Amino acid sequence: MSEREFAAQGYVIIPDAVTAAACDRLLGIVDASEHTGAGSRRLLREPAVAEMAAQLQQHPSIAALLPAAARAVQCTLFAKTPDTNWSVTPHQDLSVPVQQRVDAPGWSGWSVKEGTTFAQPPLALLEQLLAVRLQLDDDAQSTGPLEVLPGSHRGGRLSMEALRAQFGAPRVRCIVPKGGVLVLRPLLVHASGKASGVGQRRVLHFLYSPPLEDGVAWPNYVSR
């Protein structure tokens, strides 16, 4: 898919972005990390995860889509298993982690999750964010893969009424092989269903952003 097609669709699947052996090493770190239930937003603190963020950033197909001076600012683990099975209605990802609350233009929706401050940035920044979801397990078909509504990111930040209108719209199921990545704009409307099999779906969701302005800073664990 070309950069123009990505701009229009808002997502692309890149198979074989990393090796199966690299995925297995990350799974060992994930299994040893301090997380409960369906995952954690704190994985970028792990050195090996931060190294993978840098490796993915250098992948030619991903680098071409990143904003200038981009850096990884968050890594979220999503762990869907037979014991932690869930579905997610269509939504957009609107929040980013920051160092602390700041009275800055366009920032809203402040909250604290897992000890980290989160907020919704201005639309101009949201439109530049890039999410890279690395599939760590083999079975993506029956473990509730992400479903996306192509092109929906071009509508900006949608109201709840506009999002509800998307519930019945046809979506594309993104079946990503182990070691592959799903690259998407966080404003792209996406959802996922419950797993139908007994396998696991562990995904590392990396978020990349350009530099911040107006006195807002990334958390201390983000590399400078």
Keywords:
224 residues, alpha+beta, Jelly Rolls, six-stranded antiparallel β-sheet, four-stranded antiparallel β-sheet, 6 helices
Give your account of this protein's structure.
With 224 residues, this protein is of the alpha+beta class. It has one domain (3-209): q2cbj1_9rhob like domain (Jelly Rolls, Sandwich), CATH 2.60.120.620. 20% of the residues lie in helices and 27% in strands. It is built from six helices and 13 strands. The strands form three sheets. Strands 1-11-8-13-3-2 form a six-stranded antiparallel β-sheet. Strands 4-12-9-10 form a four-stranded antiparallel β-sheet, with no helix packed on it. It is globular and about 45 Å long. The two termini are 31 Å apart. The model has no long low-confidence stretch (mean pLDDT 90).
Concise account of the structure shown:
A hairpin with a 2-residue loop joins β6 and β7 (116-120). This protein has 6 helices and 13 strands.
CATH architecture: Sandwich
In DSSP terms (H or I, runs of 4 or more residues), the helix count works out at 6
Share of residues in helices: 10-25%
Rg to the nearest angstrom? 17 Å
Secondary structure elements and their pairing?
Blueprint: H1 3-9, E1 11-14, H2 20-32, E2 39-40, H3 47-58, H4 60-63, E3 71-80, E4 88-91, E5 96-98, E6 108-113, E7 116-120, H5 123-126, E8 130-135, E9 146-148, H6 160-164, E10 172-173, E11 181-184, E12 190-192, E13 201-209
Antiparallel strand pairs: 1-11, 2-3, 3-13, 4-12, 5-7, 6-7, 8-11, 8-13, 9-10, 9-12
